[in-house]
Amino acid sequence: VIQTPEQQFYLAKLLGYTYEIIYKPGAQNRVADALSRAYSFVLSVPHWDFITKLKESIALDSQVQQLMAKVQQEPEVFSDFKVLDNLLYFKGKLFIPTTSSFKQLLLEEFHSSPIGGHSGVHKTYGRLKENVFWYGIKRDVTEFVKSCMTCQQIKPPNALPLGHLQPLPIPERVWEDISLDFITGLPSFQNHTVLLVVVDRLSKAAHFGMLPTHFTAVKVAELFI
Questions:
Q1: Which parts of the chain fold into alpha helices (H)?
Q2: Could you tell me which residue ranges the Integrase zinc-binding domain spans (predicted)?
């Protein structure tokens, strides 16, 4: 009896042929579907003991324990925090202590692992903030991704290719074209720690002017004139 959609599908495929169905024992049918002939192997399930180890770490962190106690005693004051199953949550995200070594583990898992795929700052941060929270998480993600050696060595540039260096045109008269720069961090002299350097590109003649440490564009313009 043809009952299932799969049987109907194969029946429609075979209707145009003349054939004879012959039963072949499985021991002789060497080209049978591998899945139907597979042995009963031991089932292997990956187990990540991150939560267990995090609980152990939090139990030894006196500052987090004090915060969890305050959250439970004054829930209206710490409305963004919740304590569930000996773990601290902030706005529904698992709270990671600032000094915890698990931050590095999470950064590697969400960026450097096959699942993370060495994504950029935006994607790595987006996946992390959906699950966990710690103070300064975006800064840590940015620093971690930018310092990833694999990304620096393998990631191709996504900007337009740079052109060749082109020489600047040679000026025809002195002081027609100048270059300007600042020398900072000098010893203080009359409350001035910065030198304004103006150089003529043709004659290489230079003028120097003193500026205070915190100078403005207006101050530079007045000195230049």
A1: 5-14, 50-59, 62-73, 102-107, 121-129, 137-146, 149-154, 217-224
A2: 100-156
Nearest to 110 by CA among 91, 86, 94: 94
Domain ranges of the chain: 50-153, 178-224
H helices of 74-159, in order, are 102-107, 121-129, 137-146, 149-154
For 39-97, what is each residue's pLDDT tens digit? 665 655 555 677 888 888 888 888 889 999 999 999 898 889 998 888 889 998 999 88
Domain 50-153 maps to which CATH number in 3.30.870.10, 1.10.340.70, 1.10.580.10, 3.30.420.40?
1.10.340.70
Among 49, 48, 25, which residue's Cα sits nearest to residue 37?
A: 25
Give the pLDDT score at 18: 79
Q: Which CA distances in Å does 103 have to 133, 135, 203?
A: 10, 11, 57
What residue type is 216 in one-letter code?
T
Strand spans (E) along 165-213? 178-183, 194-200, 206-211
